[in-house]
Specification:
globular; five-stranded mixed sheet; 1 helix; 13 strands; single chain
Length: about 180
Amino acid sequence: MRAASLPRTAARAAVAASAAVALAVGAAGSASAATSTRTVTDGATTFDLNLTAPSAAAATGQNVTVTGSGYNAAKGIYVSLCAVSGAPGASKPTPCLGGSDQSGTTGASHWINNTFGGTLANTSKFGTGGTFSVTIHVKADLGGGQICGETVECAIVTRADHFNSSNRKYDVHVPVNFN
């Protein structure tokens, strides 16, 4: 009789352990995304910017999905992992992982622009209401001795594209930590 209850006890323990792991993974998945918001006025129009991205990533690198809404579709932006200093808009987020990645080889940045979006690698156009959903590759080492969490603070950011690079209005940061 004891031998019959031993497998049943082991099975219950396995089910309980599996449930605990599933719960932990589910909690980590929902807790790992963060949203940053910013309201800006550009001319007579007000834009409520929302940027959602993971708040943690693997130091060695991983692909992450970044979504946004409320952006001015007439103004191009880059989405990338960058070193940041201060609040969004205080100073240009730089350096950024992968630079401008015009060849599309690193996937570290994405350019969203309604004139040229979709014509080059890692580019797209805004959706209705200034929305976007892109995948970028992030890792802790930005190059040149810049290591996220060690030598610089990093965030997944949106910032004005090269047609308006001094404009800080569309800078939004989601701070990211690396495991």
